[in-house]
Amino acid sequence: MDYVIWLGAALSMIGILGLLWCVVLALQARKSGLPDDQMKARLQHIVALNLGALAISALGLMAVIMGIILS
């Protein structure tokens, strides 16, 4: 079950990196000075990416816990 733990840890790290990337994208969008409608569209896209990264991170944490329990 060690491979499940390591796979889960890798998924969690990918999810965390995705969350950090969403922060960078949001800061870039904030500095860009776009009109409101374009800013809203860009932020909606970033929110979708954020939710995906959060889901990947959560799946990774579930895999880690499952690996620990089954070990």
Can you walk me through this structure?
The protein has 71 residues and is an all-alpha fold. It has one domain. Helices cover 93% and strands 0% of the residues. The chain has 2 helices and no strands. Helix 1 (2-32) packs antiparallel against helix 2. The termini are close together. The mean pLDDT is 95.
In short:
Helix content is 93%, strand content 0%. It has 71 residues and is mostly helical.
Architecture blueprint of SSEs:
Blueprint (H helix, E strand, L loop, with lengths): L1 H31 L3 H35 L1
Helix pairs in contact: 1-2
Number of strands: 0
Number of helices: 2
Overall pLDDT score = 95
Order of helices and strands: HH
Q: How would a crystallographer describe the biggest sheet? A: none
Using only C-alpha atoms, the radius of gyration works out to: 16 Å
What is the helical fraction, as a range of percent? over 70%
- Cα shape: rod-shaped
Low-confidence stretches: none
